[in-house]
Design goal:
six-stranded mixed β-sheet, 35% helix, three-stranded antiparallel β-sheet, globular, alpha/beta, binds magnesium ion, binds adenosine-5'-triphosphate, 22% strand
Length: 294
């Protein structure tokens, strides 16, 4: 079945702009180049946590600007502060030093205005709501004049596009983990939020499902154009998905390198056969190794 918004190529700017505009996401094709225009901006951010008698230095002077509609991954060893960065961007934590801004607002304000979609490690679907009603949940709750989210028709078209039509009236417990995470991602996009924060959304999936999910996510992102900050432990996942990969080191958590991924878009599985892909993979691997040893 074809629908009015599926893209054979996996996303062209013109169509992305159209859908992005329809659901209220600005700046889909024009990418901001200055910090003031950044979708998410971390400026010299430091964060400490107190654990019993211990003061944990979770982040040290982290600076990063994520541009409008950019896809940026955070990768680094366990405990280096990746989730802390997401929580700071999502207004769930305050920095102890430095500042974080989301579209020039404080994260707390952006959060109040429901400018975020969040995709956690586990799908967190409501067990008593069907697939269709889980996807519409947040947009039903958050429907606002200036960000109405996707219409019901667009939601159904998106669900069809990612193979969920046969499951529209199923309950989460009737779905595999991969299908549940598909619903969780669709739910985040349905919200029409300009910023999506994703914390290892595919880590609980088997390797083959996980590889498929990368391209499904790229397909949706290519059409909708949200800004994505994505946490992963997988180097191939970071490279396939991202415009840039920020590599973190630990003790204290800090960004050691930001690597450009200049692979052409739209990206399909064949990209993983290219020399450029393997070159960038090597760059990220080397940066991670360096971060570990420094
Ligand atoms: N609420 C908290 N209270 C105390 N310590 C915390 C808290 N949140 C995070 N930390 C500590 O801050 C550091 C960074 O944690 P964070 O969860 O951001 O790491 P991470 O990079 O996401 O790790 P992982 O890859 O294991 O998810 C860790 O040492 C962690 O134990
Ligand atoms: Mg984490």
């Amino acid at each position: 079945m074809t629908n009015h918004w599926s893209l054979e190529t996996g996303g062209s700017p013109t169509q992305a702009e159209r859908l992005g505009e329809r659901i209220g996401i600005g700046g889909v094709v024009s990418r901001a180049d200055t910090a003031a225009d950044a979708a998410i901006s971390f400026e010299a951010v430091s964060k400490w946590f107190r654990r019993k008698d211990l003061l944990v230095h979770a982040l040290s002077r982290v600076s990063l600007d994520v541009r409008q509609s950019e896809f940026v991954s955070l990768i680094g060893p366990s405990g280096c502060g990746k989730s802390t960065m997401l929580r700071l961007a999502g207004g769930l934590l305050e920095p102890d030093r430095g500042s974080v801004a989301v579209n020039s607002q404080s994260p707390a304000e952006a959060r109040r205005q429901k400018r975020y979609g969040f995709v956690p490690q586990h799908p967190a679907l409501l067990p008593w709501r069907t697939v269709r009603r889980n996807v519409s949940l947040l947009s039903d709750v958050n429907r606002r004049q200036d960000n109405p989210g996707m219409s019901t028709d667009d939601q159904l078209a998106m669900l069809d596009d990612i193979g969920l039509t046969p499951f529209l009236d199923s309950l989460p417990r009737e779905l595999s983990g991969g299908l549940q995470q598909r619903v969780s991602i669709a739910r985040a996009f349905a919200l029409g939020a300009p910023v999506l924060l994703m914390d290892e959304p595919f880590s609980a999936l088997d390797e083959i499902t996980r590889a498929d999910m990368r391209y499904l996510l790229l397909h949706l992102w290519g059409q909708i154009g949200s800004t994505v900050l994505f946490v992963t432990h997988s180097i191939p996942e970071a490279v396939v998905l991202s415009d840039r990969v920020a590599v973190l080191g630990s003790r204290p958590g800090r960004i050691t390198q930001v690597i450009d991924v200049s692979l052409p878009r739209p990206r399909h599985a064949e990209v993983e056969d290219s020399d450029d892909y393997h070159r960038v993979l090597g760059e990220v691997r080397a940066a991670l190794r360096q971060g570990w040893s420094s």
